[in-house]
Amino acid sequence: MKPRSDTLPGLPLDARCLLDALAGLECAGALYLLDEEGRVSYWSSGAERLTGHTADFAAGKPIARLLPGYGRPAADEAPGMGEDEIRVERADGSALLARRRFQPLRDRGGSARGRLEVLTAIETVGTPLAEADVEILHGLITREPAMKQVFRIVRNVAETDATVLVRGESGTGKELIARAVHAESHRAKGPFLAVNCAALAPSLLESELFGHVRGAFTGAVRGHAGLFQRADGGTLFLDEVAELPLELQAKLLRVLQEQSFVPVGGDRTLSVDVRIVAATHRSLREAARKGRFREDLMYRLRVVPIFLPPLRERRRDVGLLLWHFIERHNGRGLRRVFRIDPDAMRRLLDHPWPGNVRELQNVVEYAFAVGRGEVLELDDLPPEFREEHAVPQEPAEPVPDEAERIRTALRQSGGRIDQAARLLKMSRATLWRKRKKLGV
């Protein structure tokens, strides 16, 4: 193994050679050296093979960030060697159960200077879904605290009949949350019906929601039971409720207040027992301020607001969801994937996921359609994963108006670095360097 001087700052050459020799003896495992703050100072070729992280990538990184699930040894303060078992996540998102041997390093004065550790695989699990910190709720999975808080709200509010408003970007799983509220409630045996308020013309939407009687309009040759009537005893999910026409908002408000309505063209009031879960990707407060949404209806809908974070804010869930969708596909077709190439995994983790979980699901479907073999390679991913990370050569000096170009891109992207970098056709790292240099 070639000595890596850049991963061993401050160590003399003979110390590096000694570690290389030790790494050769520990060829069945991963040998690495941590400084007193838990950052990687040395990363052997065995560590590269076992974890999927290269030495250059690992150098200087906190071991707990490099290997999610890693914890400090229980016997960390002991003067001699110790041994335990840990479960960590590798670069491809798979879980690794490993035996860890560790030796604290101290100077002559007895002060801690770091640890020398060796990991040996006990078991490799293709998917991290069985990890202790993973929480599952009716098809939704997470290890992120923000989503776990959403799960707790769902379980608590499901015990009541309170109206719920789910807010989140497209693809974050708003309907899945609505279904979870229904499934956890006493209405679980009743119907769950859904409608997209932006998908139908106002006249059709009114009939779809409230039904109509025979002869109510041209073509109404028979009566039609609307969604409210058919959802009696269950839950009605109103997706994109911010798009509901103003003329229908008053009628919806009456249903929420009185649990009754009159079908289109009818003269008889129908009473129903329906729980409403609404969803939107836009702010109802902003829509109410602009006069596009009734303020009184807004308050009736958002008795319990639930905010779904976008996938770009759930970085630890990317690998988890990736393997979740891979396992779904593994049992369906000709291909079975058991490993993800580290370079492909890094591109997936670095992607901003503007389409959120739905986009990730589609990426896995694409990979199974175009790729073959047990390893998901970079070439199996859609073209944008290979193109958007190409870093153009920087000019020796920035052009005079570059600072203004960066400010414009940041304004257009709402301050989101990933989007601004794509607008400028540069990597995030390049954008960060230019902002620092230009004082933007």
At the first level of CATH, the class of the largest domain is Alpha Beta
What structural category characterises the helix and strand content? alpha/beta
User: β content, as a range?
Assistant: 15-25%
What coarse outline follows from CA principal-axis ratios? Answer: elongated
Question: In a few lines, what is going on in this structure?
Answer:
The protein is an alpha/beta fold. It has helices at 13-25, 45-51, 55-58, 63-66, 145-157, 174-184, 202-210, 227-230, 246-258, 284-289, 295-301, 315-330, 342-350, 356-370, 384-387, 402-412, 417-424, 428-438, and strands at residues 30-34, 40-43, 82-89, 95-106, 112-125, 135-137, 140-142, 164-167, 192-196, 235-239, 260-261, 270-271, 275-280, 304-307, 339-340, 375-376.
Question: How would you describe this protein?
Answer:
This protein has 440 residues and is α/β, with parallel strands linked by helices. The protein has four domains: 5-124, 2-Layer Sandwich (Beta-Lactamase), CATH 3.30.450; 145-307, P-loop containing nucleotide triphosphate hydrolases (Rossmann fold); 312-387, Helicase, Ruva Protein, domain 3 (Orthogonal Bundle); 402-438. Helices cover 38% and strands 18% of the residues. Strand 1 (30-34) and strand 2 form a beta hairpin. The longest helix is centred in the last third of the chain and has 16 residues, at 315-330. The radius of gyration is 28 Å and the shape is elongated. The two termini are 43 Å apart. Residues 1-10 and 389-400 have low confidence and may be disordered.
